Amino acid sequence: MGLEGFEVEVQQVGKPGLETEEMTLNMGPQHPSTHGVLRFVIKADGEVMREAIPDVGYLHRSIEKISEKVGYHGFMPYTDRVDYVAAMFCNQGWGMVCEKLGGIEVPKRGEYCRVIAAELNRISSHLIAVGCMILDIGAMTPFFHAFREREKINDLLEELCGARLTYNYMRIGGVAWDLPPNYAEKVLAFLDQFEPLLDEYNDLITYNKIYVERLANVAVVPAEVAINYNLVGPNLRGSGVQYDVRRDEPYSVYPELEFDIPVGKGEVGTVGDCFDRYIVRMREMKESARILRQCMKQIPDGPVIAKVPRKFKPPAGDAYVRVESARGDMGWYVVSDGSEFPYRTKIRTGSFSAMSIIDWMSRGLMIADLVAVISSLDVIAPEVDR
Amino acid sequence: MNRNGYLRNIKDTCFTVLDGMAVTLSYLVRRPTTIQYPDRMAVRVQDTLPFRYRGILEVDLEICTGCLACERACPIDCIVIDAEKDKQTREMVLTRFDIDMAKCMYCGLCSEPCPTGAIHHTPEFEGADYSLESLVRRFVKEPVKAYKLKKGGEDDPEILEFLDRGMRYVEEFASPEAAPPAPKAAPKGPAA
Amino acid sequence: MQGFLDSLIAQGYFPGIPRNLVYAGGMLVFTVIVVVVFVFLVAGVTTFVERRVWARMQSRIGPNRVGPQGMLQWLADAIKLFLKEDLVPAQADARLFRLAPYIVVLGFLTAFIVIPFGSRLIIADLNVGIVFITAVTSLVVVGILMAGWSSNNKWSLIGGIRAAAQIVSYEIPTGLSIMPIVLLTGTLSMQGIISQQGWAPHTWFVFNNPFTFAAFFIFFTSALAEGNRTPFDLPEADTELVAGFVTEYTGVRYLMFFLAEWGNLYIIGAVVTTLFLGGWQIPPVTSGPVLRAVLEFLTFFVKSYFWVLVAMWIRATLPRVRVDQLMSVCWKYLVPFAFANILGTAVWVVLWPAGNVIVQYLMVLAGLALAWYFFRRVAFHLRRARVRERGELYLSPLA
């Protein structure tokens, strides 16, 4: 593939008489620490980077085009693959946009089931984000602890919908399976042992001086820059912007639930550095646990799915829906032409915008910091490329 | 860096490093969570999986009605069914029912509309094999008659066994009216 | 070693052979025994122990299939590496590429000449023992730079340069932390340093005065950095640089680099034990020479291996520091404190030339108090995770 399309002009740097060249490095599609197949062309002056040009597209699977072939119902399993780490949100987004197009209302219990599944998935997605970030910084143990907890969530979701990663739990109009018997006890038992483990995590790694020094004041993203570059989710909240789709454009049953929005405050460095993005994710896990406890108490009885015809033919038009996924505001846009296949689907993901800010952030950082930056932005390759 | 920051750095480093090391040491005396699959396990993993687990697909041809709902529902077109109406007996005959497990994405969309639960997911997940062709599961050996749901309930005990399991699988799926599940011995008809 | 050979000659072995030749031959044989039997075995088993210890800290079981409890895993890994294809990258500088692992191995194997395994179990008790080790382990830098440069791979180059900067910088605190001990003993020879300590903890140099206590921690930290161990394992940072300077190495050459790393770890443990923890000193329980030698060897081995385990424990816990932070830790924190330790020890030696027993006992108590606080913290973590209630307490190291 080489470097076609990238104007790579190697510059002379340094004082006259001591000129050296910039080094062009390829942090290629196969690399132990890029989260998925991402490629960066790095121009570095020794250890300090001058530019980090991202190259995306290695995981493009034309999912949006496939929706035009499989129809509204059949597209639901494909949405799992858009972001397989936080698949419930993608399911929810697709379900919501089809319901908006077709004017279908989801029963209350169905919405609660959706929120329960989504928040469990949020915890497990954040565990991956946090665990992989710590692994990239060099500590191995917290990664395993995070994945051990994620296995427990996987077991819970396996009982709920039968699969551990690509859930296909939700359908247009609600969810496919009701909560199994004794599910509330199991979820609450999990949460009871999970929350002290978050404190243990904090003791082990969060406030560890070496870890803090790696992340504090690194890649500071001020609030206006974050908004200009279209960052969403924990990345945006880490820069101090109080914006959460669940609070600002509420959907589903979030208006009935009480939860806080953790925001980066620059505890150990500046507002908007890598540590803030990390700590926002840690705190969001606690908030998700809180939401889950409320849902388990408040969930009403009733049907979990509305009646939707097998050949779902929404009226012609378009709809846009936002979901607060683990990676931020995920936008789902569908144009319908009245037939049972969508005319055009467009998915707007937070990771794609996060890729664009990496170049801005990495000017002047070191190569070791680039790894911390990518993992603090929680960039997931399938979401970038779809 | 002022003197306070210097000494505080040292103090922070020492305390946080030692605290981290205390956590790691505490894990040394905890039970590891590894499950030593597949040989050092008390129970087969397949027997511990929930009933809803979406493993490899299985078709019970004894209760397949030949409605082709699964073929239509599959988004990947990995189910191929040949069913013709026999001219003399006016009954559906199934001559081919192939599921290509290499294409299947285990989404469960096929088992949802099945009226009897003939096509269902099993807890089996160990499907690895050496050739791609062996992953196509061909369920019809010789042409077989499609099943017709009996009005008064099924009386043949063999078929009843399949039907019970199939209906139990299908009733796990949510239905819009949240009707209580139909009694097992006499299925009234296809679930909504 | 010489004394042992002298006693053998006196008993009538080696008739007619010139004395120097006996010394040379004896040392050679002993070196071979130490290197082949001890070093390779210990380095190999350390890989296995490391994986099991890490695994338990990460709440999983390590390798437990190859051999009873997985104890032959290291052998299987070594055999596998032997059977791998020996690649030299196309554009690489082949001669340097092939030479680099040998220089690294040379750098660490030579240090075993002066490691004192017992009162008479040392290959050569050089009178510059400790400085010899410091000097010889710096050869590793040359090897790593060669490996990084000749691989014709920018990532390896970065790894090699980082390693060179790191090892060379951390030579300074290491050397400076040895100075307090030299001030106390007046000798550089390893057996000399050990013979001035005793078997009881309060006679060990680590508890001699507060300055050597601090020097102990500085020495251990800088020695970890010398050995490219986390938190200072930037040269081989596997999430940043694929594998750093060993990216292009396969098979036996890779094995040699990693042998060097784990062997180096043992040298760190051995030197720490010699300098600070009383080496092979045992209480005078027996006088039979063979039994004494065995007990001394075991004492030394247990003490030095303990520090290998501590290094593994640190690696499992801590993240990696960045290159500039590494440099600032070395030059801004470790070096000034090492200098302060030298000054402090010098003042101490002037004030109390024969040592101050009360302070020694106090230091032992201080050490015990630190350990007590540490284990209380461990118990707190176990209590908070409610390990005993849930029946998750599992003390056995078996799989």
Can you describe this structure?
The complex is a heterotrimer of chains A (386), B (192) and C (399). In chain A, strands 3-4-5 form a 3-stranded antiparallel beta sheet. Chain A is of the alpha+beta class and 386 residues long. The radius of gyration of chain A is 22 Å and the shape is globular. Helix content of chain A is 48%, strand content 14%. In chain A, helix 4 (108-137) runs antiparallel to helix 11. Chain A has one domain: Cytochrome-c3 Hydrogenase, chain B, CATH 1.10.645. By secondary structure, chain C is mainly α. Chain C has one domain. Chain C is built from 13 helices and no strands. In chain C, helix 2 runs parallel beside helix 11 (289-317), helix 4 (94-109) packs antiparallel against helix 6 (139-150) and helix 4 runs parallel beside helix 10. Chain C starts with a helix and ends in a 15-residue tail after the last helix. The chains are: A alpha+beta (386), B alpha+beta (192), C mainly alpha (399).
Tags for this entry?
heterotrimer; B: 192 residues; alpha+beta; four-stranded antiparallel β-sheet; two-stranded antiparallel ribbon; 4 helices; 6 strands; elongated; C: 399 residues; mainly alpha; 13 helices; 0% strand; globular
**Beta-strand proportion of chain B:** 5-15%
Secondary-structure class of chain C: mainly alpha
Range of strand content of chain C: under 5%
Principal-axes geometry of chain C comes out as globular
Q: How many structurally independent domains of chain C?
A: 1
Radius of gyration of chain B: 27 Å
User: Which shape of chain B, going by the Cα principal axes?
Assistant: elongated
Rg of chain C, alpha carbons: 22 Å
The interface involving the most residues is between: A-B, 44 and 37 residues
Largest sheet of chain C: none
Total strand segments of chain C:
0
Q: What helical percentage do the residues of chain B reach?
A: 25-40%
Distance between the termini of chain C: 41 Å
What is the H/E string of chain B? HHEHEEEEEH
